[in-house]
Amino acid sequence: MSASPQTRTRIKFCGFTRGEDIDLAVALGVDALGFVIWPKSARSVNVEQLAALSARVPAFVTRVGLFVDQPAELIEQCLPYLDMLQFHGNETPVECQRFSLPWMKALRMRDEIDLTHEAERYHHAQALLLDAYRPGTPGGTGETFDWSRIPANLAKPVILAGGLSADNIADAVRQVAPYAVDVSGGIEVSHGCKDADKMASFVRHVALADTR
Ligand SMILES: O=C(O)c1ccccc1N[C@@H]1O[C@H](COP(=O)(O)O)[C@@H](O)[C@H]1O
């Protein structure tokens, strides 16, 4: 539910593990930086690493913690270092809502998903993040999905994710007109290590698409 007209597509870069990559993303004007707390990810950081990386993020840049069906106690430990939560597993609306921070719910685009219903179900979410579906993997697959499956006028802001890169982001922004876009693999040299040129090119292509 968007209250005001959108002027530009917001950008979230996800999966930071290195301070120098954070500095580059901030310099590029990226709106939100994601930290994967899920330990099975090749991009995961623990609470101590999160604290150190989070301290590097200046004011007015949103620090997002990504969790996949993890214990509430662990999430509570991370809260002081975050501004927003990203639930990327099978968390229920009640489970997402029990913390003191705003949150987004990631939905994987399996064939039978009903996004209108999910938007009602997760009505306390600030946004819905739409990602590709690969059985057995919660996300970060580097795969795209058919963007035409996203209904127009969904009751929640859409954060488009899944296999985005400088090569396809302009098409994605023009076709979907999402509130924001989120990328991890498409701006990396290797898992958790971001590529300065890919990050800059991604931001440039979003801006170009926004102006047309
Ligand atoms: O990045 C991960 O390792 C990850 C692990 C578990 C769930 C989600 C994960 N990342 C999120 O997945 C999407 C798409 O990533 P990609 O651009 O296709 O690599 C994005 O929202 C990441 O935040």
Automatic annotation (TrEMBL):
<dbReference type="Pfam" id="PF00697">
    <property type="entry name" value="PRAI"/>
</dbReference>
<dbReference type="InterPro" id="IPR044643">
    <property type="entry name" value="TrpF_fam"/>
</dbReference>
<comment type="pathway">
    <text>Amino-acid biosynthesis; L-tryptophan biosynthesis; L-tryptophan from chorismate: step 3/5.</text>
</comment>
<feature type="domain" description="N-(5'phosphoribosyl) anthranilate isomerase (PRAI)">
    <location>
        <begin position="12"/>
        <end position="204"/>
    </location>
</feature>
<dbReference type="InterPro" id="IPR001240">
    <property type="entry name" value="PRAI_dom"/>
</dbReference>
<keyword id="KW-0822">Tryptophan biosynthesis</keyword>
<keyword id="KW-0413">Isomerase</keyword>
<protein>
    <recommendedName>
        <fullName>N-(5'-phosphoribosyl)anthranilate isomerase</fullName>
        <ecNumber>5.3.1.24</ecNumber>
    </recommendedName>
</protein>
<keyword id="KW-0028">Amino-acid biosynthesis</keyword>
<dbReference type="InterPro" id="IPR011060">
    <property type="entry name" value="RibuloseP-bd_barrel"/>
</dbReference>
<keyword id="KW-0057">Aromatic amino acid biosynthesis</keyword>
<dbReference type="InterPro" id="IPR013785">
    <property type="entry name" value="Aldolase_TIM"/>
</dbReference>
<dbReference type="GO" id="GO:0000162">
    <property type="term" value="P:L-tryptophan biosynthetic process"/>
</dbReference>
<dbReference type="GO" id="GO:0004640">
    <property type="term" value="F:phosphoribosylanthranilate isomerase activity"/>
</dbReference>
<comment type="similarity">
    <text>Belongs to the TrpF family.</text>
</comment>
